[in-house]
Amino acid sequence: MAAPNLEDVGSAALFAEMLRRFKCATKGEKRIILVGPPGCGKGTQSPFIKEEYCLCHLATGDMLRNAAIKGTPLGLEVKAAMESGKLVSDDLVVGIIDDALKRPACEKGFILDGFPRTVVQAEKLDAMLARQNQQIDRVLNFAIPDAVLVERVTGRWVHPPSGRSYHTKFAAPKVPGRDDITGEPLIQRKDDNINTLKSRLEAFHKQTSPVIEYYTRKHKVTTLTADSSFSEVSRQIESALQ
């Protein structure tokens, strides 16, 4: 792939990137896994962690879709699996992650979200990192009672065109059912209902609890009180990553 022409990059963007790289030069390497059920706050905290520690954010679902679109050798395998309705193999996912880690943005490490979901996947991930003389530094376990998640998720409403989100209890729109800016109707995502959420929580606990146990035995896990305020959860994360 051809390198970007820097003459076409604005001065402000270049200067901002230089400042970012200067700041990141003093940062230590960190390889982090985020674990938590839907609605636990991982998505809210990820940008803070990425920016503060100069890490790349690897969301496996997005990575697989992008690989399929780009048509890389591994991407073609992903595309074939998706089009045939098969699950993408663990080895293929680990290969996609391995490729992603070669990007300059991942030089200081990464945040891995959505993988591993099973102990077998965790073992394959660890084996791949070991071949590069690397290892997972910290697993952040976003622990939160299921009852809190039900309240968070089932009260969530969104404005599809902009992505703005509201909550009937915590961030209610000025006019019920209407976007504050445009006045257009809000919708509730099809997955934001109690039956779907309970099913997803059951699957999460069944699959992921053994992964947490696996990394606990390696002394890698920090459990966060994820139903605390944003600032308090951020403080817990900073403490865990010192």
Feature tags:
242 residues, alpha/beta, Rossmann fold, two-stranded antiparallel sheet, 48% helix, Adenylat_kinase_CS, Adenyl_kin_sub, kinase, adenylate kinase
**What is the name of the CATH superfamily of the domain at 29-144 and 225-240?**
P-loop containing nucleotide triphosphate hydrolases
Question: Counting H and I runs of at least 4 residues, what is the number of helices?
Answer: 9
* Uncertain parts: none
CATH architecture of the domain at 29-144 and 225-240: 3-Layer(aba) Sandwich
Instruction: Give the SSE string.
Output: HEHEHHHEHEHEEHEH
Output the structural class: alpha/beta
CATH topology of the domain at 29-144 and 225-240: Rossmann fold
CATH class placement of the domain at 29-144 and 225-240? Alpha Beta
Task: Characterise this structure.
- This protein has a domain at 29-144 and 225-240: Rossmann fold, CATH 3.40.50.
- The chain is 48% helix and 14% strand.
- The chain is built from nine helices and seven strands.
- The chain has helices spanning 11-24, 42-53, 60-70, 73-83, 90-100, 119-130, 146-154, 194-217, 230-240, and strands spanning 30-35, 56-59, 109-113, 138-143, 156-159, 164-167, 221-225.
- The strands form two sheets. Strands 2-3-1-4-7 form a five-stranded parallel beta sheet, with helices on both faces. The protein has a two-stranded antiparallel sheet with strand order 5-6.
- Strand 5 and strand 6 (164-167) form a beta hairpin.
- Helix 3 crosses helix 5 (90-100), helix 5 (90-100) packs parallel to helix 6 (119-130) and helix 7 crosses helix 8.
- The model has no long low-confidence stretch (mean pLDDT 89).
